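cron nightly-structures :: item 1 of 1
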Amino acid sequence: MQSIPLTSSPPAASHRTTVLLVGLAFIAVLIVAGAFMPKWLTFLLTMAASHGLVSLGIVLLMRGGVVSFGQGLVFAVGGYAAALAFNQLGITDALGLALLGGVAALVVAAPFAPMLARYRGIFFAMLTLALSMVCYGVLVKTNALGGSDGFNMGRPTLFGQALPDARVGYVLYGVTLGFAGVMALLARAYFDSTRGLVTQAVRENELRVEYLGGSVKQAMSINFLLAAFAGGAGGALTVMSLGHIDPNFSYWTTSGEFVFVAILAGWQSVLAVFVASTLLEIVRSFSSLYFPNTWQLSLGLFLLLMIRFLPRGIGSLWVDRVAARRSKGGRA
């Protein structure tokens, strides 16, 4: 029977504290640096952060051995929930809308979690894709939600204060990076926790996890719900920056882009997810500018090169090196 790589214990408290402090400092530096960036770059990084948060949910599922091709479902639910709350309920705070989007996506995903937790491989991928496309069909046919054209959303506030015209892009950049950064740190802590290690064990050998008293179904259900929350929050953050939402948020090509980022990043590193998301936005932006009719070809070639030279994803560049150093230190 195949062994489960759980020989190492979760990182010590001092290591976790160091990672937290370094992560918070890095987020603060990026937010401050945004004040000196051109508007096009802050918008690009805003989209990269919000979309990276959605892809982070897929990476969480990948650690358990499954890939969701329907992350567009929770992305759309979060976006529509935030836009409707703004327009119909008068909830305008950016952070509140981001949390509301995550909670709405979690509520919608909850009934499906126990069912999907029983499936693996192509069955899990196709079921999630089917749910996303059902959502797309409903949104397109619902005139109250704008039909195929969608509807606009006004400018959010922050802690009750209206955002100035000249700085609205930067403020939303700071909110998005701050929210996504905190979620990334929480994800890192979850990956290093006992439950996070059990998720890796599920990918390697489900039968042994059950023999040891763990519940595979429960672990996969929780991961699906956490991925839904991340996707919904990312959808809300995206809508606030775009000011518009439409059914394409739930279309299969949108879900495919999130899977693209997850594959590009690999499942080992949280930071790699946002690096990959930023690379995707850069390639898409410049390819659309210089090759407007063939930018998808450029994207495909880029992915093929990454698979050829970095089959384990961008995160393997530093994760494998750290693991090698620890291995040498242990042998010494």
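cron nightly-structures :: done
Residues 1-9 have pLDDT under 50 and may be disordered.
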